[in-house]
Design brief:
This protein has a domain of 46 residues. By secondary structure, it is an all-alpha fold. The termini are far apart. It is built from three helices and no strands.
């Protein structure tokens, strides 16, 4: 069973078994999960923050797994 954060960043999906990808996804999942406790106060703000963490994780994974720039 996965937490909301783990589901949103798909922690189980890492075909390259890259340890950096694992760490990035776990940290983003923790932040998403941490925001859940604030939903009773400002649910819209929590949703925005969680989406931003999810998107940020996607871009970070892309950066970590992309080919280095040719110079």
């Amino acid at each position: 069973m996965f937490t909301l954060g783990e589901e949103r960043v798909r922690v189980a999906f890492n075909p390259s078994a890259d340890s950096d990808v694992d760490r990035l996804k776990q940290k983003a999942a923790e932040l998403i999960d941490m925001c859940e406790k604030f939903k009773s106060g400002e649910p819209r703000l929590v949703a925005l923050a969680q989406t931003a963490f999810e998107e940020g994780c996607m871009w970070a994974v892309k950066a970590a797994t992309g080919a280095p720039n040719a110079k």
